Amino acid sequence: MHRTVTTAIGREMGAGRAPDEVSREILVLLDGMEELLSPEVLGCAVRADG
């Protein structure tokens, strides 16, 4: 996921896109990725409330 996100950001910023547009699109991309993950993966490294 990290590589996909950083590659997408680099590609879009390199194409001269505005940061606010890119960030909104990346958040949509992350939401889609999150939907594909199982509950076990999503809860894997959750920090305990401190």
What does this 3D model show about the protein?
- The chain has 50 residues and is an all-alpha fold.
- The chain is built from 3 helices and no strands.
- Helix 1 packs antiparallel against helix 2.
- The longest helix has 18 residues, at 19-36.
- The chain is elongated and about 40 Å long.
What features would you highlight for this structure?
mainly alpha, 3 helices
Write the layout of secondary structure elements.
Elements: H1 2-14, H2 19-36, H3 39-42
Helix pairs in contact: 1-2
Categorize the overall geometry. elongated
Mean pLDDT: 90
Please compute the radius of gyration using only Cα atoms.
14 Å
Q: Could you list the spans in which at least 5 consecutive residues all have pLDDT below 50? A: none
Determine the oligomeric state from the structure.
single chain
How far the N terminus sits from the C terminus, by CA atoms, comes to 27 Å
Beta-strand fraction estimate: under 5%
The helix content, as a percent range, equals over 70%
Structural class assignment:
mainly alpha
Helix count?
Answer: 3
Q: How many E-type strands?
A: 0
Biggest pleated sheet? none
Spell out the helices and strands N to C.
Answer: HHH
Write a compact overview of the structure shown.
The chain has 50 residues and is an all-alpha fold.
